[in-house]
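REQUEST FORM: STRUCTURE PREDICTION
Request ID: SP-0412
Submitted by: Lab K.M.
Chain count: 1
Length (residues): 336
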Amino acid sequence: MKKNIVKIFSLLAVASFFTSCNDDQDVASIVQIDKPTMTISVASAVTTAEGTTVPFTLTLDEPTGHDFDVFIMRQVTSTADQNDSDINGDYANTSYQKKITFPAFTTSYSGEIEINEDELAEGNENLILQIGESRTSAVKFTPATTNITITNVVSDVLDLTFNFDRDFTAGSNTYSLCEITSDLSGDPYDIDFIVYDDSFNDLGVTDAQTGACPEELSMDLADYVDGTYHITAYLYTNAELDLAEIGFPLVAIPEFNIPITVDYLRAGSINKGRYNQEPVNYFTSNTAVDSENQVVDIVISTVGGKRIFTIQDTAGNVSASGRMASKSKHISKRVK
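STATUS: Completed
RESULT:
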């Protein structure tokens, strides 16, 4: 009789243990004694370009009953930094990480390491990563290391920004060319930028003729054959600044220069820089509407199968000597 009572109490204790788990509890974590084994598959060494991805796969020999995290760690011996990939989460010891979550009740996870495309002209970089780290305790695994050689990508586009804003004073007030409008006509100060071929035929490129300050132009190699392209500044409206010295609409403004600078960038080839218009070609506050001056020449050439942008003046020098473009050849002014 005593033996039967002991058996009854033992069965009740076991039943109480299992029924005490509510629906939200992870039963698998209770009954799973041996941890699954995770296999990490990734190329040990790979060469890839900026803007691409490197795949990896995580495989379990049996599923777990709960999600768990796996960490990809950038090794401090990498020459690539946190801006070169999506392994950019802050972590201790100046390292960086990416966390991925392996879903419950599955046995395979496929992911990618994203390699960022940047604007810098640079040589190859190495991104050394370890997939798997001690904070993952739900499974057994051996960390895997991959050494990614990142090659530079050169853009086919030359980005140009034409700056012509400047501050000036009239009496006790300060004005900006980009913000001023004429009290007489309501016109702003507006410069358009025109692209000519080597023979000064207007190519009808209107990207930098929008009324914005500054204006921007992107020259895609797909749109231009090899040759020299002259870019000029055309004064579309001048907010009646040329009347300012005689007292209307602004009072007593001495004539001042309006230089144009050109910010340029070809991602992966020409780092950000600034080109200064030759002073002889500056507009001034007295320059009349419809005036047009040389700003910069862009030369496109092919050397060794590679197409090259060169930013120069008309004589091939670093700073523009410039020249006045023939007004009769200008055929695409905006209609006022």
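NOTES: The CA atoms of residues 301 and 307 lie 6 Å apart.
Reviewed by: T.R.
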